[in-house]
Amino acid sequence: MIRLVTLKNFKRFGEVEFRIPDHVVLAGPNNTGKTTLLQAIAAWELGFRKWLELNDFNPRQNGYRWQELERLNFSAVAVRSFEMLWTNRRREQAFEIGIQVDGLPMLTLEFKYQSAGSLQVRPKNDAALNSTVLQNPALRFQTTFIPAMSGLARIEQRLADQEAIDSALAQGRPGEVLRNLLYIAHKDEAAWRALNATMQRLFACRLESPKSGAELICEYRQGLAADAPLFDVASAGSGFLQVLLLLTLLLTQSQRLGGASSVLLIDEPDAHLHLLLQHSIYSELRDVAVARQAQLFVATHSEMIVNKVESRELYMMYGTPRLVSGLEKDRLRDSLGALTHSDILEADGARGVLYTEDFTDVDVLKAFAKVLQDDAALKLLSHELIAKSSQAPLPDGLGVLTAQKHWDMLKLIRQDLPALDMLDGDSKSKADDFVDGAANKMQRIRWRRYEIESYLIHPDALQRFVEKRFGGAPLSNEPVAAMLDELRKTLQQDFLDKPNEPVPLVEAYFTSQPVSKKLIPALLQAAGLNNVPKRDYFEIAAQFKPEEVHPEVVERLNQIKQAFGVAGAVHV
Questions:
Q1: How far apart are CA 378 and CA 372, in angstroms?
Q2: What is the mean pLDDT of the chain?
Q3: How confident is residue 16, by pLDDT bands cut at 50, 70 and 90?
Q4: At residue 308, does pLDDT exceed 70?
Q5: Exposed, middle or buried: residue 16 (CB in 10 Å: 0-12, 13-18, 19+)?
Q6: How far apart are the first and last CA of the chain?
Q7: C-alpha closest to that of 138 among 42, 260, 52
Q8: What is the DSSP letter of 63?
């Protein structure tokens, strides 16, 4: 069995190694390198098989002989140009794929660019290699790359060439050869019996014997009775066809390989499957692989499959690929359903994560930072942080999103990612507030007032906002007077005269009342502005003058910078 795979300058990977247990599931979202590893193993097997045809196992002074590989015959990876196999297409140096199997030293293959349609391959010089090692049967395993099921061809003729089947699979066109695979499976009595038993158990259907003529005809009966309705496989659902493809390929391997060990590279077996089938498909695949003495590599982003796999067989493809611990497995499973693609992309380069109780809070903070000419805070909030609302819903079954839960998921991608949870004053959290700039613990601060909108109540700033909403020209006294009258009904005149000086009763009000739901809508309606959405309240903050901004807002902006290692405290 394969125990170690190393890659250098191959596609997305600069340099990385994968230590492999008996079977392995590669779990992660799209574009994290799952398929790349499968393709690398297939490319190594094809390259070594072609190099063996030289029958020359003695290195020269400058290394082993090169073997030519043509793109049209390179079934391991379907590319329009070989340069696409190199990291960032930098093809000046060879890319390398190394594989170590049980009991043998690492064998690394070098792939050298010749042209868009041609490259060369040879083993890399290594003192541990010799003619005996290179001819060891354990290195002559064969791979089958199995992509997700594509559309089934309407008509399919029998193919005599196994390479034509392999090529269609490598190019992501398994639907064009499914009937050929069924025909091969039918010739192996044990494989056909096992295939039928599984399809009966999962779908309550029975496969009919394929008929070979000008066209291949493959049919099934929907139901187990002898006279159950008969259908062509083309009429089956995508989930049925996906399972049929996977099991047929797995069950025909030992027959086709004639005793050579096989490595099955399965890309997204969960595609097209409903949750119940996702839950059972990995067990089915693993059981068949064990029975056929094949090694299984599965790439997936299905939470159901991740939940089914033992931690020792689960590779996490976030950040630096690695086998997971038990705790990481739970986080990985949840993250596949909860993390967005932008979360994953941003985590790598972000200074950290800022959690607020509403997504509108960050817009208000940015508006205040701009008023205060706090360029460092504005840059941080605008471009350098992942900003998340802790009120965002999670997919069914994952519970409520908390800042801690989301941050735990992101730390699967990047361990040194700092985070700050900015709580409203009404938060029931009893955790202590602290800011230290470290990434080992969630940092936390909270507003002294009920919510950030409590700091938008300033009569002069509100007046300027109302005027701007009415076109920017100074208004007659009526709308503003009506708004100020409404403000006096709730707050004391002392506050209107000196909004930033503490008035005990006013502070008690701001601490206990959600002004975004009560006071601000009432003030704007009194001024003749109806239905101003909460997402626009940051425009009120934009109308402040620096000296009007509450000191606590300045304090919080400074703490945010401190939490993410940004210098430049502002004092007003």
A1: 10
A2: 87
A3: very high
A4: yes
A5: middle
A6: 67
A7: 260
A8: B
CA pair distance 60, 66, nearest whole angstrom:
11
Task: Please tell me what DSSP assigns to residue 380.
Answer: I
Contact present, 194 and 251 (Cβ < 8 Å): yes
Q: Give the residue carrying structure tokens 């101003």.
A: 532
Query: Cα dist. 517→82, 363, 392, 481 in Å?
Result: 60, 18, 19, 21
Give me the sign of the Cα torsion angle 224, 225, 229, 232.
Answer: positive
Residue 298 has pLDDT above 80, yes or no: yes
Structure tokens at 119: 């490259």
> pTM of the predicted model, to two decimals?
0.73
Question: Cβ–Cβ contacts within 10 Å for residue 310, how many?
Answer: 11
The answer for residues whose C-beta is within 8 angstroms of residue 308's C-beta and 6 or more apart is: 279, 282, 283
Identify whether the C-beta of residue 177 lies closer than 8 Å to the C-beta of residue 147.
no
User: For residue 320, what is the DSSP state?
Assistant: S
The one-character DSSP state at 85 is: G
Inter-residue contact 490 to 519 (CB < 8 Å): yes
- DSSP per-residue letters across 430-480: -PPPB----SSS-EEEE-SSSSGGGGG--HHHHHHHHHHHTTSSPPPHHHH
Provide the β-strand partners of residue 95.
Answer: 111
Q: For position 394, what pLDDT does the model report?
A: 57
Query: What six digits make up the tokens of 539?
Result: 């425009």
Under 8 Å between Cβ of 306 and 313? no
pLDDT digits (tens, 9 = 90+) for 188-210: 898 899 999 999 988 899 999 99
- Taking only the tens place, the pLDDT of each residue in 402-441 is 888 889 888 888 889 999 999 999 887 777 888 999 989 9
Q: For CA atoms 462, 463, 465, 466, give the dihedral sign.
A: positive
Q: How far apart are CA 368 and CA 456, in angstroms?
A: 10
Sequence-separated (6 or more) residues with CB below 8 Å from residue 420:
352, 353, 354, 355, 435, 442, 443, 444, 445, 559, 560, 563, 564
Mean pLDDT of 478-505: 87
Contacts of 199 (CB under 8 A, 6+ apart): 205, 206, 207, 220, 243, 244, 247
**Cα(75)–Cα(78) distance, rounded to whole angstroms?**
6
The Cα–Cα gap between 452 and 520 comes to 12
Rg (CA), the chain: 32
Q: Are 52 and 118 in contact (CB under 8 A)?
A: no
Chain mean position to CA 48:
32
Six-digit token string for 92 = 């000046």
